[in-house]
Amino acid sequence: MFAAAAQSLLRQARDARPEELRALGARAAVLLQQPEPGAEAADCLRRILLVVAATKRHRKLDDKFVDVLERALCLPKCPPQIQVLCAAILREMSPSNKLSLSCHEIQETKLLSTVGAILLAQGNKKAAASAVGQRVIKVLEGRLPEGQSSRHLLPLLSQVISVFPASLTEDQTNVVNKRMVDWLRYASVQQGVAQPSGGFFSTPRTRQPGPVTEVDGSIATDFFTVLSLGQHYTEDQWLNMQAFSMLRKWLLCYGGEGASSPSSDDRSEVDGSVMSMVSATSTSSRLLPPKERLREKAFEYCQRLVEQSNRRALRKPDGDLQKACLIEAVTIMDIICRQDSSYVYRTLSCLKILHGRISRDLAYARALLPIAQFFLNHSETAAVDSEAVYKHLFTRIPAQLFHSPMLAFEFIQFCRDNLGVFTENFSIFRQSFPNLFKFLAWNSPSLILEFMDLLPALLGPDTAIEMLHLLLDLPCLAAALDVQLRSASASASERAACDPAAKPTSCLEAFRHPLYRSSFQYLLRTEAAPGDSPERLAPLRQLLGSVANSPRVVQCAETVPVLLQLFFNTAAEFADKPLINQLVLVLLERSDQLYELPAFKVDVHRVLSSQLLLLCRLRPSLVVELSKELLEFSGTVGNIQNKEDVYTYVVWAIGEYMSVSYDKRCTVEQINRFFEALEAMLFEITQLRPAASGPPSSPRVIAVLMTALTKLASRSQDLIPRVSLFLSKMRAFVQHPATASVYSEQDSEEILTRATELTNLLKMPSVAQFVLTPTAEVAGAQSQRDTHAALPAAMKMVSRFMERGAGFVPG
């Protein structure tokens, strides 16, 4: 009911006419000019805001009304509710040339935050960000009046540096650096006092506030951080939390220049370690410049957070906050080390201990990513072998937490950000591709773009064949992951009910059954296993067909054609002759070994057929080298019925490339064997049986078979009479009642036209050989490219020439 009411309101707002909006504005302007605008003014402003915000069209407001909104916004005694509504309307109409707002004279921090946000929403971001930034720094630099708070300015400052970081000068950044040091390091460790709520009994007996506590309930003995807990917080404690929330952005914007000391590159590793300890113990941080002092205090703050993350939280929300703060702390420490290498050795020992503590706890899995990022960035500087960190990350985490959407996205993003390092230096990255594909199988729609970047880096000569099998089995993997999750959550009694001697009746029973255990283990493997045989998955595909209609499996299947296209395009860049031959064999083999999803099979066959064409063009001699396999494939009637697209392209490739022009090893015996096989297939699908309901094959297959036979006959001219005789019978075939009832008139005409063209061409064998098997120079011309089953343009010209005489049309 609520949703229906909301939709009705939105519809009314979108349908509001300009004159209605002007009337509302005039009414609101009158109400806002009263000494104390109340509930009626607020209601009127809400309606205007809804009309302005409910549509993407720019709603025009009266200039006088805009002036009234600006004046009301800046009135000292304007009610907060009215102020918020005025600001929201002004932001919604941005960018606008009607605004005359300025922040130069504003002293009140809350109003400055509101006006600054409106100015930043205007089109001229550079000028607005510069003006707002200057004013914020000016206010922070001075002493705030009683009752004013810097808390309102930090979100605005964060927005300024996001829009235009160069808006602040070095002196201004130093002002903020000094403030942030105080906010981060010197906040009170006593809890705040509860604010009175008003009323007769609103002033309780004065009681001294207690100290803040840690997440485990113990009293905090060190400085305040975002993980220090209290029932109420003081002003400087709120600033401490806000400063930490924008610390990463601030360091990235203003912490990098001049970060390393001048002689840092000349020190040895041992000297660097010693200097870092001296810096930590004997050097007063107050003697450091503001930027370096902030870096030092930020590092201490993050170290304290790492220590606090070791405490056991009493409440779940505090535990979640612990994990989030740990991720942020490690990320900031990594940034500090990139800006000043003297911190690397202090951080290294801290993160080694941290990794050892949390690596076995899956609840902290997301925190392992910034730790791994630190080792990627600094292990060479610190001369540390960190391969064990990456091995644990790539083998355990995807296998056990593939179902976590946030972790999946962050993990794949981590891989994308470090593709160059991983592909050049760490073999575990490519070896773990079966594990990484679990993220894709479970989260297909949201990760497809990321995997478009990832797949080329994972693909290589050593992984190509196994990856092709895995891509074709990706929906099967999604189904297996679903079964794995359900099995893990099954009760003990359900697990005990599995009888190893009985045949499993469901996927869950099969998952625990010894007969299928090795198949599931292979499909759910964590690393590449090139020696294993994918044929073992055939019974598993059949078994997992019961979950084929699961939305997750269907979505996963829809991503496979796109990834297959990318796979073959990438493989074509590095594949050598043996690999191309292997790919073609896998293509033929797997074309009838796919997961039972009809739409999936159609899409995959379409991609496989087009990629077969690509591989044949890359290496035409594969038709001769794989003649045994191609002969077996093209001579099977079932392949026409079940995978017409693939069969059509195989026949086309045979007709096009089974020629001495492409491979000197091609013999007349091979041509004759292919001719006999294709002739038998064409006879099988065009013979007219009395009981037949019609030909089972499409006109396209018939046309391709006729063309391939003609091409082969032109290269072994003893075959010309046989193919000519066959082509002469096509008119009887298309005119037969059984054929006419299945094929349209246009289809029949196309078959007959093709037969006529081919027959006419074969009457001049030397011309037929030139047209059907052109030299490399002729075949390379744009006008002669035989893309699918169509013949070169020269054939049509010869056919027209032959038709000028009589008796050349087959009857």
Automatic annotation (TrEMBL):
AP-5 complex subunit zeta-1 N-terminal TPR domain: residues covered: 1-280
Residue stretches making up the AP-5 complex subunit zeta-1 ARM repeats domain: 321-438
Matches recorded under InterPro entries: AP5Z1 (IPR028222), AP5Z1_ARM (IPR055450), ARM-like (IPR011989), TPR_AP5Z1_C (IPR056856), TPR_AP5Z1_N (IPR056857)
Protein name listed in UniProt: AP-5 complex subunit zeta-1
Domain of life (superkingdom): Eukaryota
Domain AP-5 complex subunit zeta-1 C-terminal TPR: 450-800
Designated gene of the protein: AP5Z1
UniProt GO cellular component terms: AP-5 adaptor complex
